[in-house]
Amino acid sequence: MGEVHAYDEIPLLQQLREIEEADRQRKGTVWTAVAHIITGVIGAGVLSLGWSMAQLGWIAGPLAMVLFASITYISSVLLCYCHATPHPVLGSFRNRSYIQAVDANLGRKNARVCGLFVQVGLYGVAIAYTITSGISMRAIQKSNCYHKEGHQAACNFGDTYYMLAFGLVEIVLSQIPDFHNIQWLSTVAAIMSFGYAFIGFALGVAKVIGNGFAKGSIQGISTSTTAQKVWLVSQALGDVAFAYPYSLILIEIQDTLKSPTPKNEADMKKASTIAICVTTFFNMLCGGFGYAAFGDDTPGNLLTGFGFYEPYWLVDIANACIVIHLIGGYQVYCQPLFANVEKWVSENFSETGFIRKDFKLKLPLLPAIQLNVFKLCFRTFFVASTTGIAMLFPYFNQVLGVLGGIYFWPLSIYFPVQMYIKQKDIGAWSKKWVLLQSFNYFCLPLTLFTLVGSIEGIIRARLS
């Protein structure tokens, strides 16, 4: 007897209804997939890459970006093949989420372990985006203060109220039904990401020209002890790791494509190639010119650490673009989590009236909105909890490093490799199997190194 998978336990007629309903919802193209990926990848992480370059230096910094971009591309290609799973009656069916893909290919035990990493990863990204949005909104206030009072003025402001405002906006947007309904939001967010990435790059170029030379060194920032340098390097690698992978949402993005299997595999690989090339280009520009502009004094967040004071209005526009992008990016990452939790609840508590109770909300000048009581309560609580944790631990670089360390190896390396081996029925100790497993275990110590260093950074920041 083989291991039972969740999909096998669903009656055939219900499976066919789910497939037909999903096909009606799919309207995505290669370019909407590119927009989703860019929205997810060019986010909070790109702003920390100047700081990461400063820790790693002019050789190790760019090499680290190329390394993680290459790993992300390989991982995304492997995952593309895991979107569809063979079925004895249906021929094949599309997995609608990362967890469902793991369940279909590796069994329920692996799916439960994967589910833990996925939910923690998605939850962590929501926290990171809340922190970044608060810092960016505060930066607008500080920028205006410095312009008015002078660069030496004591423009110290808190970011708590800004995080609360971001949370309120996300509570409203979290009532969007599902991932298929946020293409417009994702497109706007992707445009904003290009906007602030380009502004950060342009300000860095202008600063380098103003300085008359590029700052920085081969070895990066000098520290008083070797241990301190090691911790900073590990945090920097964690930040770079956070800036690239989108495996958390790749299956969900591929499921929005209207093209049938196997064409959607080719479409998703094309979208991944375009998006990774674009994001790597922008990451190199923002990280490189940020480091070249400030050298050892490169701030942790390029647009909020106030290396740039003027033109203040351009700094304000860049930070406003960041906030708008993060509003959309939050939903890109959280809608899959909402779908996973709500699907599990509906399957296990289907008879509970609270789960199925709907009501209509009528607002002035707007059409009536149909809401579900459980979804409203759960999603509101989720946003409130991420906002609260962000307010308790507002440590930008360290939080990004921890998140990169937690989910990079299991979700971007281990599960994609194991699913691909199972999907293609690759024999143990064959040449292809050895190459895939070598890739798998090469990335594990790298991930552990970044995780330990970033946790040390959070503890040190909290205690100080």
Q: Number of DSSP helices?
A: 15
- Largest sheet properties: 2 strands, antiparallel
Cα shape: globular
What is the β-strand count?
Answer: 4
- Give the termini distance in whole angstroms: 56 Å
Q: Strand percentage, roughly?
A: under 5%
As an assembly, this protein is: single chain
Average per-residue pLDDT, rounded, comes to: 84
Q: Which bin fits the share of residues in helices?
A: over 70%
Spatial strand order of the main sheet: 1-2
The Rg value, from CA coordinates, equals: 22 Å
State the secondary-structure class. Answer: mainly alpha
SSE string: HHHEEHHHHHHHHHEEHHH
| Uncertain regions spanning at least 5 consecutive residues | 7-17
General description of the model:
The chain has about 475 residues and is mainly α. Helices cover about 70% and strands about 5% of the residues. The chain contains 15 helices and 4 strands. The strands form 2 sheets. Strands 1-2 form a two-stranded antiparallel sheet. The termini are far apart.
Strand-helix topology:
Blueprint lengths: L11 H14 L4 H12 L7 H32 L3 E4 L3 E4 L3 H9 L1 H42 L10 H14 L9 H29 L14 H18 L3 H9 L7 H32 L17 H37 L4 H4 L1 E4 L7 E4 H20 L3 H28 L7 H33 L1
Antiparallel strand pairs: 1-2, 3-4
Helix pairs in contact: 2-7, 2-9, 2-10, 3-8, 3-9, 3-10, 3-14, 4-5, 4-14, 5-6, 5-11, 5-13, 5-14, 6-11, 6-13, 7-10, 7-11, 8-14, 8-15, 14-15
Keywords:
4 strands, two-stranded antiparallel sheet, 15 helices, globular, 464 residues
How would you concisely characterize the structure shown here?
This protein is mostly helical and 464 residues long. It has helices spanning 12-25, 30-41, 49-80, 98-106, 108-149, 160-173, 183-211, 226-243, 247-255, 263-294, 312-348, 353-356, 373-392, 396-423, 431-463, and strands at residues 84-87, 91-94, 358-361, 369-372.
